[in-house]
Amino acid sequence: MAVNAKKIAVYVLVVFVLYVIITDPAKAADYVQIGFQGISDAAKAIGDFFTWLVDGAQ
Question: How far apart are CA 55 and CA 51, in angstroms?
């Protein structure tokens, strides 16, 4: 039962993404840019954290 719900959720997500890309490519590009910026910020924060740990957590 959970597998079917998961498949349905994935199909709905794919249809939504395709709808956004087709109807407004500029907005879709903005969403991608926001996503990559978030990933970049998270990676930088993790790097800063590990640098802090290596420096003795001071």
Answer: 6
Mention every residue, 6+ apart, whose C-beta is less than 8 A from residue 17. 28
- The DSSP result for 16-46, as a single string, is HHHHHHHH-HHHHHHHHHHHHHHHHHHHHHH
For the segment 13-57, what is each residue's pLDDT rounded down to a tens digit?
999 989 988 999 998 899 889 999 999 999 999 999 999 999 987
Half-sphere exposure of 41 (CA within 13 A, CB side): 6
Question: CA-CA distance, 54 to 18, in Å (whole number)?
Answer: 44
The structure tokens listed for 48 are: 């800063």
Residue 3's pLDDT is what? 76
